[in-house]
Each structure stands twice: as C-alpha cells, then as structure tokens.
Amino acid sequence: MSKPNLEVGAISDPRFEFRTFGREFDAASERMARLSVPVPEKVWERSSEEIYIVSATNDKNNTKIRGGKMDIKTFIQEKDGLEQWNPLMKGEFPISRDVLENEVFPAFAVDMPALEKETYTLDEFLTMVRSNDLLKAVRVEKQRFGYMVNDTICEVANVWINGAKLVSINSESTVLEDILKTMKDVGVDNFENINYLQAVKRVIGMIDKPFAT
Predict the structure, then answer these.
(1) Over 80: is that where the pLDDT of 109 sits?
(2) What is the tally of structural domains in the chain?
(3) How confident is the model at residue 13 (pLDDT cuts 50, 70, 90)?
C-alpha cells in the first residue's frame, strides 16, 4: 500500500505528532533545515497571535482562538510515544449559545455559565472564561518555520506564552515510522513529547513540570 502524500499546510487524515518545547534546539533546528526537502514558500515563515483556553480539569481537548475563529482538537490516542489528535469543532465569533452549551463548555469539563443571549462576541466569551477559576485565557504568539523531512511535516517555532519565550520543534505524519525516523535523524528522540496544551499549562503554573531543555 502506498503512503498518503502529505503536503505542508494542507489538511489530511488525523496525524500522529511529536512535539517538544525548551529554551533552545539549535543543533536539531539546523539538522532539520539541512535534511528538509524544498517546501512551498508560503510555509517558509508564518506568524500568528492566538488565545489558548486551558482548563484545570481537562487535558484531552486543545482549544485555541485565532482571527476570530475557535478551533478545538481532541486527543484520540497515544502510540509509540506519539499523540494523535482530531478536530472536534470549529466555530466563529459571534458564536451561538447552542454551540457554547453543547460543544465548547463541555470540552472544558467545567460547569456551564448562565447563558441568556442567543450569540456572544469574543470579548463576552473571554469574560465568561475569566470569571471561572478553572479556566485561563492565555496569549500565545508564534513564529513558525516549516520543513519536510522523511515525508513528515516539520517545523521549528519561536513561541511566546504570555510573553515567556520558548522554542518548539515537531514532526507529524499519518505514518508513525516516518516520525520516529525523523526524531532520530534530527536528534530529538530522547526528549519528552510535549503538546501545546501541556506547554501552556506549564508556563502558567497549572502543571508543575519542566520543559525538555
């Protein structure tokens, strides 16, 4: 059976992913850049400003807001130390009460606030988040550099979480063996797999664990 053809920046079947965070990955970043095949110019460098909504009671759903749109991904499984996530919902502000009641707040696993309006703006939603002691709205800025190594979609990213700078490096694919080979080739196979949700929680003190470097 032939492998699926992955394209950087394109949507595919749910991928497995290795990602880690630390102060620096200079050697691994240089190897990733040298091992990469040419990638489309649109993914050479990308920047974004996002808001992650994290819940003290839930590690299974990863919620972020970018450009007035909400994206929730849910954890499916872990295999060979790699994580597989799948889209749970996509929404846009103003967002309906029905979506908040049936999809968003259940994903946070917290009590439902009183919802009296039919739709809510982003500011109104963030006010509800900040009024719940179990939820945090966290500002995340990303500067991402895209690569492709061993048919896996890769990136190195400078990430600022509430202003605290970290570096992230990752590899993702639908084929586990290709990710594991890339991790070894790049030199990150001995580091902990840390997803964005876990990284945000470690920065804000919701999880008491160190980073990879």
Answers:
(1) yes
(2) 1
(3) confident
Residues in contact with 120: Cβ distance below 8 Å, sequence separation at least 6, in sequence order: 93, 94, 95, 97, 100, 128
Q: Is 177 among the domain residues?
A: yes
In a domain? residue 51? yes
What phi and psi, each to the nearest 5 degrees, are found at residue 171? -145, 135
Is 11 contained in some domain?
no
Domain that holds residue 48: 16-204
Separation between Cα atoms, residue 59 and residue 116, nearest integer Å: 28
CB 84 within 8 A of CB 15: yes
For residue range 201-213, what is the model confidence (pLDDT) as tens digits? 999 999 999 999 9
In a domain? residue 52: yes
Domain containing 142 — which CATH number?
A: 2.40.320.10
